[in-house]
Amino acid sequence: MNKISSFLIVLGFSVPHLVAQAIPGTLNWYNGEGQGMYTDQAYKMLKKKKSSTVVVAVIDSGVDIEHEDLQGKIWVNTKEIPGNKIDDDKNGYVDDVHGWNFLGNANGENQENARLEKTRIYFQLKDKYDGVDPQTLMDAEEFYLFQEVKSAVEGELENLDQYKEALANGQFDAETKKYIEDQLNYNLNIYYDDRSLIGDNPDDFTDTHYGNGDVEGPDALHGTHVSGIIAAIRGNGKGGDGVAENVKIMSIRTVPNGDERDKDVALAIRYAVDNGAQVINMSFGKDYSTHPYDVYQAMLYADTNGVLMVHAAGNDAKDVDVEPNFPTSHFNFQEEPFTHLLTIGASTRMTGEAMVAEFSNFGAETVDVFAPGLEIYNTVPQSAYMNLQGTSMAAPMVTGAAAFLKSYYPNLSMWTIKNILLESATVYTDFGFPSKSVTGGIVNLKNAVKMCEKAAKQNP
Ligand SMILES: [Ca+2]
Ligand SMILES: [Ca+2]
Ligand SMILES: [Ca+2]
User: Fold this and answer.
1) In which domain, by residue range, is 278 found?
2) What is the distance of C-alpha 78 from the center of its chain?
3) Are 251 and 108 in contact (CB under 8 A)?
4) How far does residue 107's CA lie from ligand 2's centre (Å)?
5) For 128-161, what is each residue's pLDDT tens digit?
6) For the chain, how many structural domains are there in total?
7) Ligand nearest to the CA of 70
């Protein structure tokens, strides 16, 4: 799910977070010193060093590839001739010039809204279990899942009931109104058809011929902001600075206004790996997953191919060691954990207890490290800029950091770079920070460059 919506829940609908100007004193704070990632310091250290281009996949809501602050930063599939309706490079995707859109069809139509996964599960199991006597059941596990999603969906609908009158009386600002209406019409509406437009069977992972080459789609706000954090042109006086300079963004549109489908996520990861991405940003997540093993297999594919995945921890202020945020870092806690996955919590520019963003998920075992995710000013569609927050913003900080290091130290593996990012983090020992993640730290690129320099000398 697009994490901006969840943020509204945490804040109880009230705080406007879509601010068009940078909050005074916050521009590029994430690349600075103190609570930032020391990115600007790291660039100073590498002034005379050459860099090579790193391809970064952004699996998200779509990217405005024409944004003024992303010019020259968009990946081009040079083996694909645009617009001729032929799969010139024979990678299975027709006219995929800048990436792929799994939320569309060959006629160029797009799916924008979707149900939450729990709403889809409720719909799927409703006829089978509604009114059934539990004593007569064969599949107890499935029945308990049904009860759980039913009460979750109906509970949230009941909760929204209290706002209906205020909604009708026009008491909410436009953004809150849209959020509530989207919940009622799409996210929690069990009868909403969120797939037939695309034309595939979403439960058949071998049915892969769907989507189109429109990598922007109808609502690219989230994916454009994520891309700007990674790649926005540095020092041009427009918007904020990206973390990485020498990168190309591959946009893979997969995340609707609602929960993403496991099949789209799995295919998006495989597309990224097969088409040369070295880092994959995954600023999405959901509470339920219907095909977790297929996603696990796709992630294992990235893992074994040395491609780093960077996943947002989620914005429910919960412990993800206990409550999952899919895709998880293990499959049912049984399989071996991935070697190329980082899970990222969101920190702030404040010190003390306020250093952990109040919405951020955490986990002493399954969240690896924190990165800036509050008051982040960067690119949104139509060459505009906005201030956004979420672990969705923290993950691309680390994606950008990994890409930055890879571009200056191409001989270091992504595995080495991942480990250096963890070992070089600024560690905090107070305010409960150590229990929030594996490292108890915030990414620090100045320290990371020093360690990369050392590692490169040892393995020239
Ligand atoms: Ca192709
Ligand atoms: Ca073509
Ligand atoms: Ca800029």
Assistant:
1) 3-112+203-458
2) 26
3) no
4) 15
5) 998 888 778 777 899 999 999 999 999 999 999 9
6) 2
7) 3
